[in-house]
Amino acid sequence: MAPLELLILKSLENGPNHGFGITLHIQEASGGLLAVEEGSLYPALHRLDKEGVLTAEWGTTPAGRKARFYKLTPAGRKRLAKAGEQWASVTKGMARLMRFA
Amino acid sequence: MSDWREEMESHIEMRAEENIRAGMTPAEARRAAERAFGNRGRINEAVRAVTVPVWLEQAGQDLRYALRGLRKSPGFTLTALAALTIGIGASTAVFSFVDRILFRPLPYSNERELVWFGMTAPITAGAEFVLDNDFAIWSKGQTAFSGMTVTAGATDCTLSEENPAKLRCARVESSFLTLFGYGPAAGRDLRPADMEEGAPPVVLISHGLWQRRFGGGGAIGKSLDVDGVRSVVAGVLPENFEMPSLAHVDILQPMRLNATTLSSPNRMLLTAFARLNPGVSIVEARARLEPLFQASLKTVPGGFVKEVKLVIHPLRDRQVRDSRTAALLLLGAVAMVLLIAVANVANLLLARAAARRRELAVRAAIGASAGRLARQALTESAVIGLLGCVLGVGLAVGLLALIRQAAPEGIARLAEATVDWRVAATAAAVSLFAALLFGMAPALRPASVAGLAGTRASAPRREWLRPALVVAQIAMSLMLLCGAGLLLRSLWNLSNVPVGISTTGLYAVHAQLPRARYGAEDAPHQFWTRAEAALAALPGVQRVAIADSLPPLSRQMAVIFSMLKIDGVSRYRGQQTGGMVAVRFVTPNYFSMLQIPVRKGRGFTEADRRDGANVMLISESLAARLFPGGDPVGHRVRTSDGEPECEVVGVVAGVRNAGLTEPSDPEAYMLSSGRRSFSALIEADSRTIPFAREVFRTLDPRLVVEVESLDERVGKHRERPRFRTLLLGGFAVTGLLLAAIGLYGVIALLTAQRTGEIGIRIALGATAGAIRTMVLRQAGAWTLAGVALGLAGAAAVSDWLRTLLFEVKPSAPGPLLAAVAVLLLAAFAAAWLPARRASRVEPVQALREL
Q1: Which of B5, B14, B20, B44 has the most A C-beta neighbours within 10 Å, making it the best mutation to test the interface with A?
Q2: Which of A9, B188, B499, B673 is deepest in the core (most CB within 10 A)?
């Protein structure tokens, strides 16, 4: 799983959010990963939606603005857990590699 | 998709609000938000790629692009569409009606078992017959068939009521319907008892007559006056009833076939049908019938035996015998038109692909994949193909209506022919396949960036496919032209065949007197004498004659040549029958009105008629056969035992009496004694005709009277050949046009591709004439190749036309030369335009384009 998709799923772990909210979350969490184009988040969002990992629904922000809210589906949570494990094992492996090097 | 736009907008606005909160002006904030969002177009595409399947998206693009491209080159589009429309339209229309003749299922149960059988002899002109007594014997003794039946054939009959109507009646044996698997739609079938002597007259009426006469209501048990006989309607025929002879009938009557008729000395000539026993082939059936046939031959008069044959045909083969060749000819012709059209479209697509190589190279250079380019080209072909199909089916509907209008009466089932969807689909599939196949050309020859390097003068590639297509088109269109030429020549011959009579200003009034009211020996004679006098008294009528038949037909009565007795003895020494002699009953005016010259002796006079003299006139051909080298005048001839011996008083010129195409029979004329079926021949102007009808109405209001000008009568014999010629001629012209367009298109394109080369030639001093010659020479080479191929093709298939031709050999040089000339002319015209354009190339401009 691509890092961007993992980030999206991770940012939705604590509850539904709209695209802009996810952008802010990722920018905060990862610094510069989304610095180039905020819009480049959306193809990934729509793909995940289509894969059934997310559902999307129109709603209103606390500020009263209309926005499309994304929410993890059970399948999404499962994928996130699996991806988290994989990621952990990859980083663990990398760390071990770095130590030997 | 609007969902996604809104989402995008909402994102940007939230970012802008954030920016405002961070201290930017609203305008600044918005701009920064847009910038942060990134390249909208690219993101848009990426999102759409997720939500809309790529192929569908691209198909939409291709379609739009194709439509735009087609609009931008109307010349190509219109030509290709026209070719496809004509090809599909013509072939669909013609096949739809030919199919009714050749391939439609017959409305009978297990049609493969049904046969049409009988004996043939030269004197019946190819018609199969069975004698009534033979039928009675054979149906008891035979083992080949599970059933056999007979009909006396359809004849005119009259529904004599207040508004007398002329109908067609057929007498049939009682098992007739059952043999073909029919049952009555209402009422009962005929029974053997109906055929007995003195049985009460019953009829079966057709579905159509039931609708017309009884409004589809209760008809069973009602009575109809058929030819003056009150007959009870016993049953109604099913709607899909069709005589196996394809003759139209309104009424079936039981045939009188019983002990009394069988023991009488008069024999009936019947048409016989049978159903083969399961597992019995035609060959085997023939073998099983052979003993019965041989036994029957023993009763045949001596001269006949060697000429009579037993024949059994599958019913379908026999039904289409007469129309088969014409139908196949038309089918072949439209197939060629379709092929020419397809070749044309193929050529146009190839040409278009070649012309667009630069454009495709540009698009390949900026990143279009080869597959994508090919798909786009295919979309364009498919659009043309589909449009052509729709227009083609429309044209087929129109053409079919036109064919129906132009067709002479009596082409079986033409009236009900409709556009056949299977055919339309096949034609459409063929052309669509061709369009797609040749639309592949750009894909097969992928555009390369090298194609953009226009400064390199590349030698034009050797083309073979396009010239080959052009040659094929020319060959096929020449074949069509040859066929049309031969038919035209044949029609010309037919129009100019001397009938031997003058037809101008002459009208025939025909009436059939029903036996029930005119059965008395003298009654017809009295009727016709009164009719003749009343007609002659009409103002505007110059002369009147009465005759039992009129050229170009006869055959009300014919006698066997070998049976003629001259001065009391039969002189014929041959082994066979000697063929038939037509006998015509006429009044003295007949010869002067029709301008049939008397060659020897004298004609009939009113004095002969008044005195009841037994006199005879014979045609020149009969005179030559009966009295070779001698003078017939004064000899006495008896045509058959029932007729009086007549003195030959003169010899008259021959007339056509077996139709326009068949050889005429020798003919003998006797003075009219007035028979039940007669025609009055009147010389009058057309305004008198209503009064002539009135004369007959006064004499007998229940008669059906038909009036026809003699010109019309003779003209009817040319209708079918004219119809065939019209259709084939139409296709030949269409084929020629398409081929000419094809030739023009290819020459024009190849010339356009050589513009640079031609510019150099002109710059180096080539004259306009030399350039023209160069282009024309190329076109000429292809045309001549096409002509050679076409003539070979025509020679291969023209033998097949033989039966449709009248006094023209399929190899007749005249029509073939004319066809070649027409083709060369069209080809020259097609090549001349591009040649002239090439000769006017501006060298400076052309060189700049290199």
Answers
A1: B14
A2: A9
Residue B449 CB-density burial (10 A; 0-12 exposed, 13-18 middle, 19+ buried)? exposed
Is A17 part of the contact surface with chain B (CB cutoff 8 Å)?
no
- Considering only CA atoms, which of B807, B812, B811, B820 is closest in space to residue B732? B820
Nearest to B47 among A38, A46, A67 (CB): A46
Run of H or E including B289: helix B282-297
Q: How many CB atoms lie within 10 A of CB B150?
A: 29
Report pLDDT digits (tens) over B718-739: 887 888 888 888 888 888 888 8
Q: How far apart are the CA of B374 and the nearest CA of chain A, in angstroms?
A: 29
Place of tokens 């139709």: B659
Give me the mean pLDDT over the B111-119 stretch: 92
User: What CA–CA distances, in Å, run from B331 to B95, B445, B478?
Assistant: 6, 37, 17
- Chain A residue closest in CA terms to B14: A20
d(CA B582, CA A12): 108
Contact across the interface for A20 and B11, Cβ inside 8 Å: yes
What's the complex ipTM? 0.86
User: Where does residue A15 fall: left (phi above 0), alpha (psi -120 to 50 degrees), or beta otherwise?
Assistant: left
> What is the pTM (predicted TM-score) of this model?
0.71
Query: Which of B574, B548, B550 is CA-nearest to residue B561?
Result: B574
Cα–Cα distance measured from residue B654 to residue B154, given in angstroms and rounded to the nearest whole number: 30
Interface residue B5 vs chain A (CB under 8 A): no
For range B280-294, the mean pLDDT = 92
Decide if pLDDT at B356 tops 80.
Answer: no
pLDDT above 60 for B515:
yes
Domain count, chain A: 1
Nearest C-alpha neighbor of A43 from the set B612, B50, B664: B50
Instruction: Find, in chain B, the residue whose alpha carbon is nearest to that of A22.
Output: B11
Q: Which helix (H) or strand (E) holds B274?
A: strand B269-276
Instruction: Find residues 43-62 of chain B whose CB sits inside 8 Å of chain A.
Output: 43, 46-47, 49-51
Q: What are the start-end ranges of the H helices in B587-718?
A: 589-594, 606-611, 620-626, 689-699, 710-716
* In a domain? residue A23: yes
Query: What phi and psi values does residue B397 have, to the nearest 5 degrees?
Result: -60, -45
| Burial zone of B233 (CB within 10 Å; 0-12 exposed, 13-18 middle, 19+ buried) | buried
Domain around A11: 3-96
CA distance B56 to chain A (A): 17
Structure confidence at residue B674 as a pLDDT band (50, 70, 90):
confident
Give the A window 23-52 contacts with B, CB below 8 Å: 23, 36-40, 42-43, 46-47, 50
Per-residue confidence at B456, pLDDT binned at 50, 70, 90? Answer: very low
In a domain, A101, yes or no: no
pLDDT at B140 over 60: yes
CATH code at position A49: 1.10.10.10
DSSP state of B515: H
pLDDT at res. B290:
92
Q: Does a structural domain hold residue A27?
A: yes
A24 lies in some domain: yes
Question: Which pLDDT tens digit goes with each residue over B785-809?
Answer: 999 999 999 888 877 788 778 888 8
Chain B residues touching residue A23 (CB < 8 angstroms): 11
Name the residue in chain A with its Cα closest to that of B3: A68
